[in-house]
Design a protein that fits this description.
Chain lengths: 475, 314
């Protein structure tokens, strides 16, 4: 058994033993020669460049495209572990969807006193336009990416619920493609659940949420902000894989109560929009009037049942970290069950007592902005300088409502391939979940993000993190 | 297919063709310069820059013409919006824009070549590397067309790609013929006389037509024959007649896919009748320059009509 302070490694147990998930892999790995692996390591980067799997970093030159570093040692999960995880994920996602419905209808959870009203008032993602409206099929969060971290054999925690627009699924797919190209024999030796059907599952799931007035097979389109968006590659990739159109705001307009796209033969109605554009840019008539990314009038069409927008506008409420801290109550409130997947312990700086504790222990905690994402604007106490801590203290004292704090978790590590052989680095895991009126569908696998610097806990790709192929073993 | 995507594919292939034509022009110039002394090689580079339509931009920067300046200007100069490097970037940008309408093989051919070309042209290109650069650029076009022919559905995207290629190619042939016209045929009386054969050779080389022409004419070269070959011989893929007949087929295919003809189809038919009713004598009688002006205007108008018919822009 691992002691409580012991760092959990996905591959190696105490005294260098190999964990069950990695038995077959290790057997293969031990037979490879270092030269061969080194060559493959270099091939991988070239293969990603060729395919064009790049992302643009905000704030840098528009033309600059970067690769997310790929590490070729897979992150492996056993079938039994995955079953436990999926039960917890499904429970959480069902609760999230019920929570969204309730927030925009009777707000029972607020009435019952389980959730403070102010969390909605202060939440930028809250959309009054959604009140009293039910999206087609009652689905709010069509695509969810739940971020999980692990600290021990059975200790998985939810770090974030990405209910707005989770990205990274193209890496899950391309990482697997790359691995199968590089090491075909490995996949003959180890039974790995496939992920390649994700685009088909996504297309099916989105089509199942089409509005009632759809005629024939639903027309699905992916709405992208355009080629300079950091995730454009993914938008194009998913549209291509689903056989859907890839549209920009300028391709769409409202005609006769429907949203229509400008095709070479004229305007044609769209039934489902998988939008990768934020709420505030979606409709200049309703939200940000300067937006050129959206479609004037789309919210009216939406409210009259003429189109499905995935994810539904206003779901970003759940991405707020103050709301996150209530998720255990939220899960219990809507499912009547104890949460199967725990939250990371969270102090809400909005509470006086919590805030005092956080201020007293800044050097040991991770402090995050409630509306922040992407690893920006946060303080990692143990690695911060005194000066950084003092500066952060001031910001926190000025606006305690804007922050939450969590303990510095000792995230599990997984080996990466380096010139000197395998070396452990911290990882997290983002499985992708599809929600349709009847089903919650979780693709066996996900995106494993890895901090490439030794000891670093920051896995975000915008800050130098990399990715790994994620395997769920067959039974 | 979205109008914007069709526009992306159309222009992706126009820029691809343009960069390829520019590379051929450069190749022809390089060859000529090798056979000249320093002074006349200056004339040669002036004529290459002129044929590339970049004379003004070049002279804004350089007082004299040297080979190194000329080919770097054409290949990679930031001040030249029509440099091969900028054009290939446009090829790739348009390919990204139309990413979900083109095959993975075509996309990878473009992306792969873009990486190679931007590497090759990252630094000024010296005497010993320029031929290699030209080869890579020409091969980029060959690979992209090969990937398209071998992997793409004969659907909207394919026909827009071919249409863009043909509109651009016709434009390039007109330009090279028009610019060389005065050198080739300073006066009508020169027809048939022995002019500087290397000038003609350059024209043929800049459309990769030297071998084809020689094989058809038993190695003999004459001005009228070259013009006839490049304007009216529809067997040669870089002749005006070939481009227009291919363009007509692509537009007919698009009309079938869209269940009806547009303005572009009608204009194409008229242009076709005009071209097929002319002999090379008619063209010379009326004036080659006037013929080329007229052809170029029609070609541009058809390009515009395609854009309107298929709603390229909002």
């Amino acid at each position: 058994m691992d002691g409580p302070d012991e760092q959990f490694d996905e591959m190696h147990g105490p005294a260098g033993s190999v964990r069950e998930a990695y038995t077959d892999y290790e057997q293969w790995y031990s037979q490879q020669d270092a030269h061969f692996l080194n060559r493959k390591h270099k091939d991988a980067e070239h293969s990603f460049r060729r395919t064009g799997i790049t992302f643009n970093v905000y704030g840098e030159e528009a033309a600059e495209e970067r690769l997310i570093p790929f590490d070729m040692v897979p992150r492996i999960i056993t079938a039994a572990e995955w079953r436990r995880l999926t039960r917890g994920i499904e429970q959480r996602v069902r609760a999230l969807n019920a929570f969204m419905y309730d927030l925009y209808h009777r707000q029972e959870i607020v009435r019952s006193g389980r959730l403070p009203q102010r969390l909605l008032q202060q939440n930028d993602a809250w959309l009054p336009n959604m009140v009293g409206f039910t999206p087609p099929g009652g689905v709010y969060t069509h695509i969810v990416g739940i971020d999980l971290v692990r600290t021990g054999p059975d200790e998985f925690y939810v770090l974030e619920d990405n209910a707005r627009t989770p990205s990274g699924v193209s890496y899950m797919l391309e990482n697997r493609e790359t691995m199968m190209q590089m090491f075909p024999e490995l996949f003959m030796q180890v039974g790995v659940e496939p992920v390649s059907n994700y685009p088909r599952r996504l297309a099916t799931s989105l089509a199942a949420c089409a509005p009632k007035m759809t005629e024939g097979r639903p027309t699905v389109a992916v709405l992208t902000p355009g080629i300079y968006n950091s995730a454009y590659y993914e938008h194009a990739f998913l549209a291509d894989q689903m056989g859907a159109e890839l549209v920009e705001g300028s391709d769409l307009r409202v005609i006769d109560g429907r949203v229509a796209m400008r095709t070479t033969r004229g305007y044609e109605a769209v039934d489902v929009i998988y939008r990768r554009v934020d709420d505030e840019f979606l409709d200049p008539l309703t939200f940000n009037p300067d937006s050129v990314l959206g479609v004037p009038g789309i919210m009216d069409v939406y409210r009259s049942g003429g189109i499905t927008i995935a994810n539904a506008p206003g779901t970003g409420v759940a991405d707020d970290k103050a709301i996150y801290s209530f998720m255990p109550d939220i899960v219990e409130f809507y499912t009547g069950e104890k949460p199967l997947l725990p939250n990371v312990e969270t102090w809400r700086c909005a509470d006086e007592e919590d805030c005092k504790y956080v201020l007293d222990n800044l050097a040991d905690l991770v402090v995050k902005e409630v509306h922040g994402s992407g690893g920006y604007g946060m303080l990692i106490g143990p690695t911060a300088t005194k000066k950084e801590i003092e500066e952060f203290r001031k910001k926190l004292q000025e606006n305690p409502h804007g922050y939450i704090a969590q303990p510095t978790l000792s995230l599990s590590t997984c080996p990466i391939f380096t010139d000197a052989g395998l070396a452990p680095r911290h990882v997290d895991l983002r499985p992708f979940v599809l929600v349709s009126p009847d089903t919650v569908d979780i693709t066996p696998g996900g995106l494993t993000r890895v901090a490439l610097e030794e000891g670093s806990l920051v896995v975000n790709s915008s800050q130098g993190g990399g990715t790994k192929d994620t395997w769920v073993l067959k039974d | 297919m979205l109008g914007r995507t069709a526009n992306g594919i159309f222009w992706m292939f126009r820029y691809l063709e343009r960069s390829e034509n520019m590379a051929r022009l450069l190749e022809a110039g390089l060859r000529m310069a090798l056979t000249r002394d320093i002074v006349s090689s200056e004339d040669e580079w002036r004529s290459v820059i002129a044929a590339a339509g970049q004379r003004q931009a070049f002279e804004a920067q350089h007082a004299t013409y040297t080979g190194v300046q000329a080919w770097n200007f054409i290949l990679r100069d930031k001040a030249n919006p029509m440099s091969i490097l900028s054009m290939f970037e446009l090829v790739r940008t348009n390919a990204r824009l139309a990413r979900n309408a083109i095959s993975g093989e075509l996309w990878e051919a473009i992306n792969d070549n873009w990486m190679q070309i931007s590497d090759l042209l990252a630094k000024p290109v010296g005497q010993s590397d320029v031929a290699e650069a030209v080869t890579v650029i020409k091969r980029a076009g060959t690979l992209a067309h090969g990937a398209m022919v071998g992997s793409m559905l004969r659907d909207h995207a394919y026909h827009f790609a071919r249409a863009g290629t043909m509109v651009e190619r016709a434009d390039a042939i007109v330009r090279i013929l028009d610019i060389k016209y005065y050198l080739l045929l300073p006066a009508l009386s020169y027809v048939g006389s022995s002019l500087d054969t290397s000038q003609w050779d350059q024209v043929l080389r800049s459309v990769s037509g030297d071998r084809a022409y020689r094989s058809l004419n038993a190695g003999q070269i004459d001005a009228r024959g070259i013009v006839e070959f490049l304007v009216l011989d529809d067997r040669f893929p870089r002749s005006l007649a070939f481009c227009h007949s291919a363009l007509r087929e692509e537009l007919a295919a698009l009309a079938r896919l869209h269940g009806g003809e547009g303005q572009a189809n009608r204009m194409m038919r008229e242009a076709d009748i005009r071209l097929s009713n002319q002999s090379i004598e008619d063209i010379f009688d009326k004036g080659l320059h006037e013929f080329l002006l007229d052809f170029s205007a029609t070609n541009a108008a058809i390009g515009q009509a395609i854009s309107n018919d298929y709603r390229f822009l909002a």
